[in-house]
Amino acid sequence: MPILDHVFLPYLGRPALPADAGPIAHLHGRAHGRAARVLVRADLADAWSEALGAAGAFDPMSRFGDVEHIQSAGGRTVVRVPAGHGVCDGALVYKDEPYQGLAALKGLTDRSRVEREFVNLLVLSELGFGVVRPVAAGVSGPAGLYTRSFLVTESFDGAVPLRQWEGAGEAAPMRATVAEVVSLLRSMLQAAAAVHRQGWWLDTFQAKNMLFRRGADGALEWRMCDVPRLRRGPPGRLFPYGVTRDLAGIDKWAHRWLDEDARRALLADYLCAAGETDEQAWIERILRRRDRELHRTGIGRIRGSLRRSRGRRGRGRSAGATERGGDALPETERGGDAPPETEPGGDARPESDTG
Predict the structure, then answer these.
(1) For residue 97, what are the β-bridge partners?
(2) pLDDT for 352
(3) Model confidence at 340, in pLDDT bands (50, 70, 90)?
């Protein structure tokens, strides 16, 4: 089975795969009578082909058997595949989505979204960042066009997205103490620092992309489930634009639980560990960006109005659906009981916010 040597199809300006992604198996075949290609983690390539067979490798939904349907909207289908499928240990999450109309022409100029997301998740996983581990991604269509695509990741069972956690208030599946939130933030900042030191930034610390659950020991755990964008600046130092966007994204939801002094202290610790001396200037830049994301500035209010307008046009989609610009895994990762609540008293409860 051929292994990509970190180079994708060279024609029409398609970019090379970053070396950080690690080895990826690249399969070619046919699905539904049309040309198909699949990217698979190299360590799972043999298991993928053996478990699904020659045809199923390009049309995995036809071979997964009993699945739990999580979401169906706008042609997109999201299901949970229970353990025992033979590809790897544990359950999988499978997303299938058609390319309709002019969207099919994207195949002429760029990699598909699912292939980019697969590579982004794999890069971050190799760098030790908390993401759901990707398994495979594939596209099919005639003459280089995209008509269908799928992405398969390992399931983060029992988790809820941050948007659901923070929006439920007292009814939230997980209530956390201030100390737990601080510990969670330190973990996220440490993971972000490892990525930033390599010159990468995510530009996608959004509530809909973050999953949380309680582990077997009762501690909060987190994973990012959707990384549509992964940028790179010069390695070896902090790239101001990218780092500011990432840390502002974290502070955007952290301000619901912690006061500004506590958040400033966490940001100062991050910047000190990164060797930055002008911490105050960095923090002010981060908070200005956070205010824009919360629609508190002129530009932020314009962006908020445009997003609300798009949201009104797309209300026909099901409750768990997200905008095409940043598909998240379903509202709840099925297959696990809701994590236990912490003892009442000292809970950190989100404040209401329009952001």
Answers:
(1) 149
(2) 39
(3) very low
Specify the 3-state DSSP secondary structure of 38.
Answer: strand
pTM score: 0.76
Euclidean distance between CA atoms 29 and 34, whole angstroms: 8
DSSP codes of every residue in 127-147? TT--BPPEEEEEEE-GGG--S
Give CA–CA dist 41/43, Å, rounded.
6
Over residues 169-178, the pLDDT tens digits come to 444 546 778 8
Residue where the block lists tokens 């912690």? 258
CB 98 within 8 A of CB 72: no
CA distance 120 to 355: 26
What angle is formed at CA 118 by the lines to CA 112 and CA 124, rounded to 5 degrees?
135
CB contact at 8 A, 131 and 95: no
By the 8 A CB rule, do 222 and 234 touch? no
What are 111-166's pLDDT values in tens digits?
Answer: 788 888 999 999 899 888 999 999 999 888 876 677 888 999 999 998 888 877 75
Under 8 Å between Cβ of 333 and 226: no
Q: Where are the beta strands (DSSP E) in 91-234?
A: 92-98, 134-140, 148-154, 160-161, 176-177, 200-201, 210-214, 220-224, 231-232
| Structural domains of the chain sorted by starting position, each given as residue range(s) with its CATH number in brackets | 3-154 (3.30.200), 160-348 (1.10.510)
CA-CA distance, 73 to 320, in Å (whole number)?
9
Measured at the alpha carbon of residue 325, what is the angle toward residues 193 and 308, in degrees to the nearest 5? 105
C-alpha distances (whole Å) from 115 to each of 26, 40, 89, 124, 353 are 11, 10, 23, 14, 34
Q: Are strands 210-214 and 220-224 parallel, antiparallel or unpaired?
A: antiparallel
Task: Specify the pairing of strand 3-4 against strand 24-31.
Answer: antiparallel
